[in-house]
Design brief:
The structure is a single chain. The chain has 89 residues and is an all-alpha fold. The protein has two helices and no strands. The longest helix has 11 residues.
C-alpha cells in the first residue's frame, strides 16, 4: 500500500524592478562606472518596497530569479557603429 500526502507550499516573491527605457548611444558612452551599462538605482526604477534583508526571514538567495527582457526597437546605423569602434579602440 502506498500513501501519498499532499503538502501546502507557498512562494514568496517580489518585483526588484520593472523598467521601460530608451538606451541611446550617449547613454552607452557616458554611463558610469562602466560604459554600455544601464544602472538601476534608487533614483530610477529600483522597487523601494523590496525586502530590506534578502536572507532572512526568507532566503531569496536560495530561490529562483525570473527575468523577462524585451527589445522593443533596435536601430542599427553604420555611423554609430563606426563611432563606437573608434572610441572603444
Amino acid at each position: 500500500m502506498i500513501t501519498l500526502f499532499a503538502t501546502e507550499s507557498r512562494a514568496e516573491q517580489f518585483v526588484l524592478f520593472d523598467a521601460k527605457f530608451t538606451f541611446t548611444w550617449d547613454d552607452a558612452v557616458n554611463s558610469s562606472p562602466s560604459k554600455s551599462h544601464f544602472y538601476v538605482t534608487e533614483k530610477n526604477f529600483l522597487n523601494k518596497m523590496r525586502p530590506g534583508n534578502l536572507a532572512s526571514p526568507i532566503n531569496y538567495g536560495a530561490g529562483l530569479l525570473h527575468e523577462d527582457r524585451r527589445l522593443r526597437e533596435e536601430r542599427r546605423h553604420a555611423h554609430l557603429l563606426q563611432r563606437r569602434n573608434n572610441q572603444l579602440g
